[in-house]
Amino acid sequence: MEPSSLIGGLSARLHRVSDDPYHHAAGLLQALAQVPDPRDPRGRIHPLPSLLAVAVSAVAAGQRSVSAIGEWAADLPVPVLARLQVARDRFTSAYLVPDASTIGRVLARVDADALDTAISRWLISRTAVTPAAARRAIAVDGKTLRGSGRPGGQVHLLAALDQHTGTVLAQTGVDGKTNEITRFQPLLDGLDLTGAVITADALHTQREHARWLTETKHAAYLFTAKKNQPRLYRQLKALPWAKIPVQDETSSHGHGRRDIRALQAVTCLGPLAIDFPHASQALRIRRRRYNQATGRWSTVTVYAITSLNAAQARPADLADWLRGHWLIEALHHIRDVTFGEDASQVRTGNAPQAMAALRNTVISLLRLTGVTNIAKALRHNSRNPDRPLQLLGIT
């Protein structure tokens, strides 16, 4: 099994996709036209949407670097160049294929947050939550692009992912003067979160986030709690878990190990009340893992808090959302292993974030078509330049 397939099993359980694999993909060039062009109007040869479309098409064909994007573009046949709306010589009408240096300069100067926003809106408009999904679950997590600079100067990104579709709904940069916590609300502010449940790790288990989600965005939260919130952690740990029955238990096998997860939930009322905004249920998840290589069992205990009451979320739902949160970790794994993101030495300007946006786009579109093995799909696309354009809906 290839590394890029680890997201498949849970993703398949959480969503269904359309029978038409390209139903969602029309209008990418129009969406890219919403990104501001950073170049001086004088001397422009290539339209910005065309340059960006060439870049994302190359990434959909498995190209990992700016140099590889330029080489891929240089080999494109004329019909493909026409569909990508590549500029033409005014005298000879020959297509002027953008080279790697041109593409690299544009990616370095483009407003990467605007690019992320334009692409995310385009994906959202073509993504429907199926009737099988009772409540939309959105995972929030950050990632450092390790090859983007020296320690302390690396690009760090915060993203939101729809657990049901595997689609990246939003991404924003986290500059060195702040941290993920301050970028949580800006990341989600442009999304309609009404009725959704937001899952996040302990870093984002913040009182301000809980109030903002419930009171302003009319959403729910499901946060894990660790010792970075010592008072909350102590309260959760002190609940009478020995008297609370296990309400959901699941097991899984793979990668030389067996996992058994048991979830307990209790309503936060009266003597069991938790001092955290809108806290409705407290959770304890105990994961027992058997390692076949060592022949030993290990146990990990995780506490969580949610604003959803027992009538709004069954124990099985809570367990699915907690496990589904790791789909965003799987996204990061795919970008690292299949696209070589951490090994990438792209460092100039906004290019690291722009390249991450292109990778997110390709992964999201492949997920929407039901693909579970990204590496295999990229190899398939690489053998025919029409296939990436089909995926992107460029006709």
As a whole number of angstroms, the C-alpha radius of gyration is 23 Å
Low-pLDDT regions: 1-26
Mean of residue pLDDT values: 90
Strand order of the largest sheet: 3-2-1-4-5-9-8-7-6
Strand content: 15-25%
> Structural class of the secondary elements?
alpha+beta
Following the backbone from N to C, one meets helices and strands in this order, namely HHHHHHHEEEHEHEHEEEEHHHHH
Binned, the helix content reads 25-40%
Count of β-strands: 9
Q: Count helical runs.
A: 15
The biggest beta sheet is recorded as: 9 strands, mixed
The backbone outline, from C-alpha atoms, is elongated
How far apart are the first and last residues' alpha carbons, in Å?
33 Å
Concise account of the structure shown:
The chain is α+β, with helices and mostly antiparallel strands.
Written overview of the protein:
The chain has helices at 8-14, 28-32, 48-60, 66-74, 78-83, 100-109, 112-125, 180-189, 207-216, 230-237, 315-324, 327-337, 351-368, 374-382, 386-392; strands at 137-145, 155-162, 168-174, 197-200, 220-225, 248-254, 257-267, 281-291, 296-306. It is an alpha+beta fold and 395 residues long. Strands 3-2-1-4-5-9-8-7-6 form a 9-stranded mixed β-sheet, sandwiched between helices. Strand 2 and strand 3 (168-174) form a beta hairpin. It is elongated, with a radius of gyration of 23 Å. The protein starts with 7 loop residues before the first helix and ends with a helix. The model is unreliable at 1-26 (pLDDT under 50).
